[in-house]
Amino acid sequence: MTLVATGDLVAAAKRAGRGVAAFNVITLEHAEAIVAGAEAAACPVILQISQNAVKFHGGGLLPIARAALAVAEPAAVEVALHLDHVEDSALLLQAADAGFSSAMFDAGALPYEENVTNTRAAAEWAHQNGLWLEAELGYVGGKPGAMASAHAAGVRTDPDEAVAFVAATGVDGLAVAVGSSHAMTSRSAALDTDLISRLANVLDIPLVLHGSSGVPDDEIRRAIAAGMVKVNVGTALNIAMTGAVRAALAADESLVDPRKYLAPARDAIAETVRVLSTVISR
């Protein structure tokens, strides 16, 4: 399969009433494992590189982006490349030349009017450069420096406000606050499927679920049945990777060759991707 556009994968999933999985890439091993897991599940996949991942790599987008593209291009399934949680406009402006077909511009922490203004400018630039643009409305918990819980009063995405926001910004996909939280290490989140249904009924664009690592399989399935389309997963991969590294090092205290612990870590990520891709995309 050749590299495909995120917008095409998301649109196809929405038409079919299923989800499409988007997994976070931090290292080359993540990218390799995500594609291997998606191939094992025979499901399309979106490789996501976040602004935080770019910071981890010293602020340079191209090395990790080119690595992900090199892994994606020969894949046996459809693969798209997405730049995630971008708050820095200068980084967003690098997306098209770096090979991304989409981006998520994150102004969700700003007051509503500032979110609208900044997101509208991001969407206009994205569309001029052939990119599909995702934004966020409401508060999805678990971000660094978070001041509120995902369950605090008033943080869920309001359907009427969502309609106005989409009309004012022209975004192509909307991440909504429906009870999930970023960086959860337990799968205990309970989603508001009634709210998901209400949002899906009033919006023509696809809904995006952030913080899906903390959501049980059955909750994910119910969310997709209610209208969720793009499903983001990051922490679950890191749990699998870290667990495999710890096990390998604990089994042999003399181990110094990183290939000896990164190989099982990559396999653990791939298996997590295989399982979750099946839950999300079938």
Structure write-up:
This protein is of the alpha/beta class. The chain has one domain: Alpha-Beta Barrel (TIM Barrel). The protein is built from 11 helices and 8 strands. An 8-stranded parallel barrel has the order 1-2-3-4-5-6-7-8, surrounded by 9 helices. The longest helix is centred in the last third of the chain and has 24 residues.
Question: Which features characterize this protein?
Answer:
alpha/beta, 15% strand, 282 residues, eight-stranded parallel β-barrel, TIM Barrel
Instruction: Report the sheet with the most strands, covering strand number, pairing sense and barrel closure.
Output: 8 strands, parallel, barrel
Order of helices and strands: HEHEHHEHEHEHEHEHEHH
Q: Give me the CATH fold name.
A: TIM Barrel
Distance between the termini: 19 Å
* Estimated structural class: alpha/beta
Choose one word for the global shape: globular
Write down how many β-strands occur, each being a DSSP E stretch of 2 or more residues.
8
Q: Would you identify the CATH architecture?
A: Alpha-Beta Barrel
Assigned CATH class: Alpha Beta
Strand content: 5-15%
| Low confidence ranges | 149-154
- Percent range for helical residues? 40-55%
Chart the SSEs and their pairings.
Blueprint: H1 6-16, E1 20-24, H2 28-41, E2 45-50, H3 51-56, H4 61-72, E3 79-86, H5 89-92, E4 102-105, H6 112-128, E5 132-137, H7 159-169, E6 173-176, H8 193-202, E7 207-209, H9 217-226, E8 228-233, H10 235-251, H11 258-281
Parallel strand pairs: 1-2, 1-8, 2-3, 3-4, 4-5, 5-6, 6-7, 7-8
